[in-house]
Amino acid sequence: MDPCWLFLFFLLMARDGSCNQEEICSKSMINSCSDCIRSGPFCVWCKKLNFTKPGEQEAVRCDTRATLLKNGCEDEDIISPENSMTKDKAEPLSDSFTQQKLIQLSPQKISLSLRPGSPETFRVSFKRVQGYPVDLYYLMDLSYSMKDDLKNIKELGAQLFAALKKFTEHAQIGFGAFVDKTVLPYTNTNEEKLQKPCDEDYQQCQAAFGYRHVLNLTSSEREFKKKVNQQFISGNLDPPEGSLDAMMQAAVCGDKIGWRNSSTRLIVLTTDAGFHMAGDGKLAGILTPNDEQCHMTDNLYVQSSHMDYPSVGQLATQLSKNNIQPIFAVTKEVVKVYQELSKMIPTSEVGVLSADSGNVVQLIERAYRRLSSKVTLTHGNLPNGVRVSYTPLCAKPGPSGENEGVCDDVPVAHEIAFNVTVTVDSCMTGESFTIRPLGIKDTLTVSLSTECDCKCPEQPTTDNTVCSGQGQVTCGICSCNDGYVGQFCNCAVGDKDEQSLRIHCHKPNSTECEGRGDCVCGRCQCHTTESGSNYYGKYCQCDDEHCEKFQNKLCGGNGKCICGKCECNPDYEGSACQCKKSSLSCLAEDGSECNGRGKCKCDRCECIEGYQRPRCLTCLSCPKPCRTKLNCIECLGFQSGPFKKNCTSSCGSIIHWSMVDQLNFTTKECEQKDSQDCWVKFKLEQLTGVDRFRAQILEKRDCPAPPSVVAIIAGSLASVALIGILLLMLIKVLLYFKDLKEYKKFENEKKKSKWAEADNPLFKGATTTVANPFFTGE
């Protein structure tokens, strides 16, 4: 072979990773062959008898193939389940539409038995049949702004059929129309406006509606022209239309539309406006979400005014589920809106429609060519823990990916293929998923099972002592009879439960024997380490090989590793014995080590919490001593305060103190108010150690002058007298105003009185005249 070609071959192999992939077996808690197989794709099991050495755990049987062969296991004794694939159904691809059964995807059913973590690749072939049927459903916006477009569509039926016959002799066309929901604020709900929503001068106008199915898919040009000619324009209020409502019903009402089982399904949406989507229904008080079900009665969408618009995700799901490919024929004003919509709907196309829809036939023809020449292979919902990737094998492949594989510019009747790689991450049974080309009904069903158990035949042996006569050898290890446990079935548990024995072999919330030994009759039998020494301890928790290193030496070469911790030689210290004992950098001015507030390790102070390096002199987070020592200062200097009765025992932290007439310590001066409301001045000097001080106390306190008793009494009496006088004046004023009110009331009543002028017949005057009968006047 040419050296240049050989170099190129190895270069490509290295790029694919098939030459330099390192095989690693990451194992933990291995007790059986099945545990080993589930640990990783490169883990294999050695079933050779007596493969383990005394004291070794059976987990050494689990490793990579290369390691086991190196350690003395024979190739025929290695158990390594392999992936397998079975083609359950693989009918050949159809060459033409004349065949009774059309097959465009092969195989149709396969079964995979996979080992977790080990990928399996198989090939899927696809060929689009020449003359494959096409079902085209023309979905038109009949709002008032589309009146000119409707006139043209009535004349374009023949051209539509002619365009489709360029691709197939088996074409069908249907027709549907939409406007918007017949509720406010989308449509004027005035009764007259509902019946005639167009302008008053426009006579040919049909009543407002949401979506109406007009014509089932048919191959009759005359029937298409007849039904379309019967359509009239309608109207609504707002610019966005109910196009998503219409597309959803056209997708899910397959039996009413007339979609064929074996056909390329297209929906051509023509509009000059945007669209309403899920949530817009709240404007009309419609809160019920779209249920993605068919609600067609007498060819009319009857839930239009009661159910919200579908979301873009709901529509995309139903279009994909029913193998429908939309073509958005829209005017240039809204083309960007529908281009963004097309990105969220797989296998869809957008074309710019002229103002009167005169170019719709050419637009549909170009869009169909683009859709039919692009093949996208993808999958449905995957079971948990399953990954699928695609590698297209065609002239113009798209990028390889985990979601889909794409081939562009694929001619009709040209066979292409995809390499599909399936990987499972965990054990499973009875799972499956489907793979299919978007827009095509053909599917591939992939059934999954996993190889998680070792299928080891019973190993006959004439040596009855291998399992102590109490078990059989399976996959190279002993399977003990009831009542016996242990690596060689040498522990008789009798009536005891094995679990009750094993509980003595591990600490709480820990693994059995720390994963470093075997639990035999309730006691840990520790394994040997890789270097040949032994683990030890009640739970095999100790070894003398895993201590901290310094300069790549265990315990820095200056100590011994004992049960995971370094015990240093006399002249060394540190967690890894990395430094000589020294305290020069830790000495304070008074010669103390770290000022008595820490320990010197590796010539560096390790201060107690709060104190700062380098020599633990200051404590930034400690409470200020001016406040904490005030009670002791008052007690020692002035025999008062809370600690007066137990001053000596409570103030032991102040080692020395003195009363002075002038403070001369260099530390900060403290000025605090004591229990007698006097200002006390003092200075504290911290001594070596924690909470140890020397104090200077100023002899004279600044106390406030005592209150004047005479002034207080005089002031109190004056206040009482003043308050009394004010109360009396207030009472006098109230009484005055009350009398004044009564007097005014009397005066008013006096003025209202009227005395009668007539004589009272019963009244007699005060003067009485008496006549003497005997008086003669003489």
Automatic annotation (TrEMBL):
Alphabetic keyword roster: Calcium, Cell adhesion, Cell membrane, Disulfide bond, EGF-like domain, Glycoprotein, Integrin, Magnesium, Membrane, Metal-binding, Repeat, Signal, Transmembrane, Transmembrane helix
Secretion signal, residue range per the UniProt entry: 1-19
Coiled coil stretches, renumbered: none
GO BP annotations, alphabetical order: cell adhesion mediated by integrin; cell-matrix adhesion; integrin-mediated signaling pathway; leukocyte cell-cell adhesion; neutrophil chemotaxis
Integrin beta subunit VWA domain boundaries: 32-454
Cellular component GO terms held in the UniProt record: cell surface; focal adhesion; integrin complex
Integrin beta subunit cytoplasmic domain mapped to chain residues: 732-778
Principal location: membrane
Topology in the lipid bilayer: Single-pass type I membrane protein
Residue ranges of domain Integrin beta subunit tail in the record: 626-708
Stretches that traverse the bilayer: 709-735
Protein family according to the UniProt entry: Belongs to the integrin beta chain family.
Protein name: Integrin beta
